[in-house]
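To: structure subgroup
Subject: Chain for Friday's discussion

All,

I'm putting the inputs and outputs inline so they're searchable in the archive.
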Amino acid sequence: MNAERTKDDLLTPALILDLDRFESNLDKMARHVRERGRGFRPHAKTHKCPEIARAAIAAGAHGICTAKLSEAEVFAEHGIPGLLITTAVIGRRKIERAVKLAGVAPDTIFVVDDENNARDLSEAAGAAKIRFNIALDLYVGRRTGIAPGAPAVELAQRIARLPGLEFQGLQAYAGHASHGMTFEERRRVSLEAVSQAVETRCLLEKAGFPVPMLSAGSTGTYNIDSEIDGVTELQPGSFLFMDVDYARVGGRDSEKYSDFACALTVLTTVVSRPEPKKAIVDAGLKAFSTDKPWPPEAKDVPGLVYGFAGDEHGRVDFSQADRELKVGDRLEFIIPHCDPTVNLYDRLYGLRGDKVEAVWTIAARGRCQ
């Protein structure tokens, strides 16, 4: 812990985590999957932070998902078990790194959707005298994977003849289902996608392949996919933090998705008052993700409107707010999209009330290769 002990001591812009809300979110997800006989392997692309990964495992997670080999390397260095790399490791140099990773963290699971990639992994495993744990990535969304059904079974049969590869199961991530504006829309899209994965699992088992894992689900579909027979674990990420993006969609029984609390915000300082009812804060394009069309939203200040004003600044209109702003005031903003916003920061501050209880390094930040 450094000398900064309260929120008022923090230099801005600062990425802050409400620990009470974060812990409540994690506990709610863990209880949900446990009560339904499922597991969960939260996606670390959301937080990129070893301390958060440890908290998830302490809550009962099987491990964590990582989007990239480079992220997995960081978490392995910090002793995090149960890694599932959700994107295929392609090319000689990356496979060389995968060999090293498997030596350090032998329970790591690598996904494949291409026979040539599987052959490359097999040859590397043989040369290094190791085994790779392999899961088939199914194309049930709009990104990567082998087509479910017969194509996946045929690929599994070809991979089974390759030495050094241990089949662990299936990945079926349907990201396009996660942000449907209503629960029923998300349910329809996710059932259509994940049912293909369940059917593929059945076909594989009939063909003599044990399929211990079918990993699916997201924050937006956690209470849908956990009800689907055949799904063994979920891989949600945003539920830990939440953001404006998820706040826009509808819940199961309400117009607003409020299953998990907003725990992550950016703390800013008013640095100028150039116009009546207008203020400038010290957080702009480099402080918030800009991949969504909606701006950050002020926490606990209804009527305040944020607009980007350059790399380092945001323009705040408080003409409809219930408070006046002056230079030096602090404002917290709920972020548009948590994953890319976290990747802008070196650390996050865990707060219990106004007290800084933890300072955690975002150790996998920028690990894009």
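Points worth raising on Friday:
The first helix runs from residue 19 to 35.
The first strand starts at residue 14 and ends at 18.

D.
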